[in-house]
Amino acid sequence: MAEKSVPEPQFEDLLRYIQESRGLDFRGYKRTSLRRRIAIRMEAVGVEDFAAYQAHLEVHPGEFEDLLNTVLINVTSFFRDPDAWEVLKTDVVPEIVATAGDQRAIRVWSVGCASGEEPYSIAMLFAEALGLQTFCERVKIYATDLDEEALKTARAATYTARDVEGVPPDLLDRYFERTNHHYVFNREVRRCVIFGQHNVVRDAPISRIDLLVCRNLLIYLESETQDVVLPRLHYALAPDGFLFLGKAETQLARSALFRPVEMRHRIFAKVPQEWRRTAGNTLPVARADRGDAPPQMLLAETVLNEAGTAYLVIDEAGKVALANAAARQLVSVGEADIGRPFQDLPISYRPLELRAPIEQAMRERRVIRLEHQEYHQSPAETIRLTIELRPLFHPQDGSVYASLLSFTNTTQIHAMQRELEAAQESLEQSIEELQSANEELETTNEELQSTNEELETTNEELQSTNEELETINEEARSSNEEMESTNEELRLQAEQAVSYKTYLESVLRSMNVGVVVIDAAHVVRSWNRWSENAWGLRAEEVVGTAFDALDIGFPVHLLRGDLLTVQSGREAAEQVLEGVDRRGRPILCRVRVAPLSAEDAGMVIAFEDITEERRREDYTRYLGRIMGQALNEIYFLDPDTLHFTLSNRGAEKKLGCTATQLTQMTLADVMPSVGMDELKRLFEPLIAGEKPEIVVETVIRAVDGREYPAEICVQYYGEEVPRILVAVVHDTSDRQQLPAA
């Protein structure tokens, strides 16, 4: 056997602390694998020894979750090892369904279910075999694991496209619902799967299981722990139950508790161990009072008492159930010894210890014969006994329920054998050479046996190494899956970054504003298309160049103060500067300098061409000045209420009121001969677009009561914001009255 590693006190103390504080018992796990997985967490948190890591756990209780996720290698997938699942589908599941009949419930237990792919795979197989409705009524699947976080994932039953690659397309369509970028397992089937935290080494097993799936869990356990777990799995199975192991668990196939159904794919059936159960009935106990026994029983006892061979019957509880007359006389077993434990009788240990051979006979279900054992009936009389140990089988189910011991006095036979041996001494001398050769052969046989034992030891070491390599392979696969997941996230982030960059470039190119991004050293990082068109330099020529050193026909040196102000105070600055664009045209720009963000010390410089805007403002200012000084009255009216909103100085002077007073009046207030309703009807064709303008001759009344004749020309501007009516009033007091014709 391979030597066990020397225990490390700090390591054992750490395992004990984990068990006492969180109830996580790792003592049955292989020390090499367990030590390596814990070392991964120690390296992650930056501690050097197990004592320091224990102190870290005491200070940071949240580390327990990361430790559990690291130690428990959750490597699983849907229909992992498809060939094995195919055998399960075609051979095992139909047999379980047939054995259960039409009424009995079917119970399945998935040990070490991780994130749920395994129990859901089992559920799909039984749902396919029974139909969805029957499956939901009769099948219960118990899925257990130590890792509570993995159980949460399993209960959610939400998987990525990569997770369901092993699911056949037809099953994927029937049992999964596609939502965005994930697949959710069927809700009805999911209700039949019960998840729970369970330690198969310490906790009581679930019973009456038809199919027990325990794949690549036992390879992480020490051999002593495996010897504890296997009987638990045996107990959990129903008499006709099946055990489905992982492909790496080869040594477990040698257990007497299970027989192989499909050795290649590690599928086994339970072997009933009837001898382990306490028999319901023992042999009839011989008593003095047998008046109520059947005649056949009395006849059988009479025959046994008359037999010359001494017989003792030992029941499964280890008590004397029957002893005939010859046994009472030969080995001194009396009526009072019936019902007593066999170990209390002298015959149990004299002439030799018989309890071990009795157990061997019952366990191996064969007859054991002990020849010519020396027995002292009295201090003066010594005889030879031949003892035969025979298991008794139940006539109905074939189980072993008692042992029959027969004692035969072979003193004379032994003496004759001694005489025969003496007579054969001369013959033995004549064949001395043959005996010598036989001894040489025996020596060679011993050497071969020694070599065979060494080979067996080597084989066990190789098996242990193979299990360790399989464990490392599982760990590597887990790490590989994590890396693939990380790579997928990085790929999506890269695609998003490219998309954002393309979007940002499109936005910057479409803007009618020059945008320049510089870093903390005033080096240009971005230069959009407006800047290229305005200053005549392409982005490739400018990016990487100091902004202060650019010669673009614009006084960039005048922005240095704003740059320093923004860079130090992180507040935006703005000013208007004149420059010359690449065509030599004067250009007036509003330049705004703003910080990027708190994390990035760079800045954004925005150039807005306001040359035309300033020119329009000047034109508007000139136009307003001209209109304001005009002698004609000009009014802006609200089309809905006919209130004055704006007027020129000529109107204010003519009416004798201020602009503020005028905004409180309507057009009807200065036209005494026309009412408000009549005015609205008058302007309806104008507002409806039926007429371009309306001219009205009326009388205007000033604030001081003075009246004068006037002609009003009204136009409507409905496309403007806000909509307005413009009324131009001409005083007609000085017009000459034309003579009548």
TrEMBL record:
Isomerase recorded as keyword: no
Domain CheR-type methyltransferase: 1-274
Reactions it catalyzes: L-glutamyl-[protein] + S-adenosyl-L-methionine = [protein]-L-glutamate 5-O-methyl ester + S-adenosyl-L-homocysteine
Keywords assigned: Methyltransferase, S-adenosyl-L-methionine, Transferase
Keyword S-adenosyl-L-methionine: yes
Region of interest called Disordered, as start-end residue ranges on this chain: 424-467
Superkingdom of origin: Bacteria
Comp. bias intervals (Low complexity): 424-438
SUPFAM superfamilies the UniProt entry points to: Chemotaxis receptor methyltransferase CheR, N-terminal domain (SSF47757), PYP-like sensor domain (PAS domain) (SSF55785), S-adenosyl-L-methionine-dependent methyltransferases (SSF53335)
InterPro entries documented for this protein: Bact_Chemotaxis_MeTrfase, CheR_C, CheR_MeTrfase, CheR_N, CheR_N_sf, PAS, PAS-like_dom_sf, PAS_4
CDD domains: PAS (cd00130)
Occurrences of domain PAS (ranges): 500-544
Enzyme Commission numbers on file: 2.1.1.80
One Pfam family per UniProt: CheR
Name of the molecule in the record: protein-glutamate O-methyltransferase
